[in-house]
């Protein structure tokens, strides 16, 4: 039981990091990848809680929806080059994640 608690906390931390990555992405491609990470870690949490069938169905449905979203992003987006992000945004994200992890 001790190992499961650490695994549960480990998955929760990665889920929080993937949600933060989803919030700070500047291109839709990276957003779709971060959204896949969020859905994966949510499904891993459901498996740890004993809901394996619901996790499998949820992941299959999310992957189907994300394929549609990714196809839409690829067809709509035009290459606009690199978008610069200020250092202040990185500091705020670091402070928020530090507070959440404490």
From TrEMBL:
Transmembrane segments: 6-25, 32-50, 56-74
InterPro entries: NADH_UbQ/plastoQ_OxRdtase_su6
UniProt keyword terms in alphabetical order: Membrane, Transmembrane, Transmembrane helix
Record Pfam families: Oxidored_q3
Domain of life: Eukaryota
The UniProt record lists the keyword Transferase: no
GO molecular function: NADH dehydrogenase (ubiquinone) activity
Protein's UniProt name: NADH-ubiquinone oxidoreductase chain 6
Species of the source: Micrurus lemniscatus lemniscatus
């Amino acid at each position: 039981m001790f190992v499961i608690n650490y695994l549960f906390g480990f998955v929760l931390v990665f889920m929080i990091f993937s949600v933060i990555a989803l919030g700070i992405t500047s291109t839709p491609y990276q957003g779709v990848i971060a959204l896949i990470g969020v859905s994966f870690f949510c499904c891993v949490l459901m498996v740890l809680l004993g809901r394996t069938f619901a996790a499998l169905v949820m992941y299959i449905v999310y992957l189907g929806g994300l394929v549609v979203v990714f196809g839409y992003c690829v067809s709509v987006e035009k290459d606009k080059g690199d978008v610069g992000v200020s250092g202040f945004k990185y500091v705020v994200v670091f402070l928020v994640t530090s507070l959440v992890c404490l």
